[in-house]
Amino acid sequence: MHNSFQPRRVLGLIVLLAAWRTALGQDLAVSGWTQPALAGAAVHFRLNALNTNDAPMAWAFPCEIECRLTAAQGERESVAKITAARNESRSIPADGFAQAEYSLRLPEALTGDVVVEFRNLALGRVVLKVHPPEVVPGKQRPGESFVHWLLRDAEPAEAGTDMSPGRFFKEHIFGYEPFYFIAGTESPNAKFQVSFKYRLLNEDGALAQRAPALKGLHVAYTQTSLWDWNAESRPFYDSSYKPELLYSWNKLVGGCPTNWFRLDLQGGFQHESNGKAGADSRSLNIVYLRPTLTFGREDTLQLKLIPRVWAYVVDLDDNPDLPDYRGYADLRAVLGWPRGFQLSALGRIGDDGDHGSLQLDATYPMMRLLHGSFSLYLHAQYFTGYGESLLGYRERTSMFRAGVSLYR
């Protein structure tokens, strides 16, 4: 058996591997395409960032990737959108990789072999076998009665628009105000808050495609409760129920991972009440405007300033002197790292310049403890001033509590 070293063959193999890397777009590659691919539906794929350096590198996945799709029927433009809620900059270890999932809607007119070109990334072309849909959602089949068409398939069947629990929560339910459970030693010693917001429009729906600005429309709900463990039978001292309708304008200015400044804006209508009757009844309605100014990149120390101004609407029959304690504005400041320790301060003052309050919250992610076993935050809170509860808004209190939070 003859075995010899051939330099030319080795050199040719090296050139071939280099060409293969170049075809993948240097350190980028795509994989995991949805099968089967249907015209008019969304397909999903993964963008992989490969680090071939000898040291770790930072990489921020783009929010959108411009694509050109070409088939026998012609040429179309489309945009692949990242499916994650945030496109944070990630640290990729040496010889390692990171990946993110994207969604790309295929035009209804293109079927067969469709060539996908990535316009703003150095990636090679991808050829997809696109099949025509068996049934076009929302259209009546030949010979089908109107009643049957109206009742069947009311929920769309395209990938990304079905109502399976996983995709439903991922595309519609988001964190809103801090979500925590904390406790102290003095009555009422336990305090918890649950909060979330729901996006009204489907991401791939016709209304969202024709008027993208409407995707900022949400409904939200926040509940803050004080629980008196020290009292007999451990009753709830008071709860505030806050449903609201809001509109958010994200990334009005900045918003890319490399930007040092970002401006978001939110406005809405909020109702708040404690659900009690008689002399203990408390309620109010406000319309508000809340800008968010963020200083610092996503991978550095950040300062967020979140002022909010509001006006009371409808009568304050249950608590006419509430503006003396709540005022007409508050200010939240958050200092820390987006994925590390954060310190938050929320302050407000009555309309006469007195009866103020200050709440300090310190949080630290437990994801780094016990090898990432818990998706929680350690949470410590100190409140001093008036109005920690809606029931006792005229009372001055000071309280320290500690516990955990799910969202901050």
Please tell me about this protein's structure.
- 10% of the residues lie in helices and 47% in strands.
- The protein is mostly beta strands and 408 residues long.
- The chain has two domains: 145 residues, Sandwich (Immunoglobulin-like); 243 residues, Outer membrane phospholipase (ompla), Chain C (Beta Barrel), CATH 2.40.230.
- The radius of gyration is 27 Å and the shape is globular.
Give a quick summary of the entry.
Helices cover 10% and strands 47% of the residues. The chain is mainly beta and 408 residues long.
Helix and strand arrangement:
Blueprint: H1 7-23, E1 28-31, E2 37-38, E3 42-50, E4 57-60, E5 64-71, E6 74-82, E7 89-92, E8 97-105, E9 112-118, E10 126-131, H2 146-151, H3 165-172, E11 173-175, E12 179-183, E13 190-199, H4 206-210, E14 217-227, E15 236-253, E16 261-273, E17 283-295, E18 302-312, H5 323-326, E19 329-336, E20 342-348, E21 357-365, E22 377-386, E23 396-407
Parallel strand pairs: 2-10
Antiparallel strand pairs: 1-3, 3-8, 4-7, 5-6, 5-9, 6-8, 9-10, 11-13, 12-13, 12-23, 13-14, 14-15, 15-16, 16-17, 17-18, 18-19, 19-20, 20-21, 21-22, 22-23
Key terms for this structure?
408 residues; mainly beta; Immunoglobulin-like; Outer membrane phospholipase (ompla), Chain C; twelve-stranded antiparallel barrel; eight-stranded mixed sheet; 23 strands; 10% helix; disordered N terminus
